[in-house]
Design a protein that fits this description.
Layout (H helix, E strand, L loop, with lengths): L8 H15 L6 H8 L3 H8 L2 H25 L4 H18 L7 H6 L7 H27 L9 H18 L6 H13 L3
Helix pairs in contact: 1-2, 1-4, 4-5, 4-7, 5-7, 5-9, 7-8, 8-9
Length: 193
């Protein structure tokens, strides 16, 4: 009799995402994933192929549900400066409220790039590039509307803002308190002046 899936795959990927997000790829064991998803080892292998394949699905789910969803919401705003400020406000608020100090799954994975293959590295690079592109587009629109001076270089400033995003996500995992994270977010706005 062929193997029949008795669980919701998207829900299982979401549960696995939480395990990988908290522990990272290397530290998450199959026992952690079995416990976290409530699915047997055999069912996990049959449905996903293995730990690496499940990690890729979890990373893609996080990217879609979190980064892409947030950027879509921000891109829909009519005011690019307000959108940039809203991004930093959201990052700081999420980081402060993260009792487990998990940080950002995408940024956490970026810090482990040397342990991953090209497929995972590509997902991370594309996600970070899209955040940087959001900043660049927002700056260009604000410049066209005369909200930001033409002397601000959109590409260079977008890279600086991206670095501040990563800084908030990494330092917010326990190194910096709420006040310090808010200071970084405020400094991001200074790059736009």
């Amino acid at each position: 009799m062929p193997w029949e899936k008795s669980f919701d795959e998207d829900e299982a990927v979401g549960k696995a995402m939480k395990v990988f997000w908290k522990k990272g790829f290397e530290s998450a064991s199959m026992a952690d994933l079995i416990t976290g998803t409530g699915i047997t080892r055999g069912s996990l292998y049959n449905a996903f192929g293995g730990k690496k394949e499940l990690f890729v699905k979890a990373l893609l789910k996080y990217d879609k549900d979190n980064r892409r969803a947030l950027l879509a919401e921000l891109e829909a705003m009519d005011d690019p400066l307000r959108a940039i400020a809203a991004l930093f406000d959201a990052l700081v608020a999420e980081t402060i409220s993260d009792a487990e100090k998990k940080g950002c799954f995408l940024v956490n994975t970026a810090s482990e790039l040397t342990t991953h293959d090209e497929e995972v590295n590509s997902i991370v690079r594309n996600g970070l590039r899209e955040i940087q592109a959001f900043f660049r587009r927002s700056i260009e629109v604000a410049q066209a509307r005369k909200q930001i001076a033409d002397t601000v270089d959109p590409e260079v400033t977008a890279k600086g803002l991206m670095a501040m995003v990563v800084g908030i996500r990494v330092l917010g995992r326990g190194m910096f308190d709420a006040s310090s994270l808010k200071t970084i977010a405020a400094q991001a706005q200074c790059l736009l002046r």
